Amino acid sequence: MRRTERFPVEGSNALWQLYRTVSFWKVLRNVVIGELNRYNPHLGFKNWVYRTFLGIRIGDKTALALKVVVDVLFPERIRIGNNTIIGYNTTLLTHEYLVEEYRIGDVEIGNHVMIGANTTILPGVRIGDRAVVGAGSVVTKDVPAGAFVAGNPARFIRWREEEPSLSNPPGTC
């Protein structure tokens, strides 16, 4: 099971009770900021907006591609390391509203991670340093450091191969 906090509800489904969980004004502000920033092509400015207005912790030289969707209810629960790439149209969720409960969990993405386009990352998931997530994957559980995963749900494919050392380029001793 992912690391999520569970909150049971009674009566109507949890989504109908959304504004008992989080302020309408916070959601409205986050939707406007998030939607505008999805189309922002300037990586540095985009990261600044996410850090400053949504409270997302984003490391240096990290790139969120166009149309990345960040959670609008609890964006402050997203942490992304340094030099990471989040591919086009990826969704980072920190909440799930179900019929009888809602769940909230942190999304933690390490350093030097590559997440392919059209991926969905569910709440409570950790992706380790230097991991690779194939395009179109649904990440439902933790990804160990250095692993390559893909699919729906994402499954282990192999360990990531290390890049050749830049100190010894090909053809040298």
TrEMBL record:
**Alphabetical list of CDD domains matching this protein:** LbH_MAT_like
Q: Spell out the molecular function terms from Gene Ontology.
A: transferase activity
Which keywords label this protein?
Repeat, Transferase
Keyword flag Transferase: yes
Which PANTHER family does the record cross-reference, listed alphabetically? Answer: ACETYLTRANSFERASE, ACETYLTRANSFERASE YVOF-RELATED
The name this protein carries in UniProt is Acetyltransferase
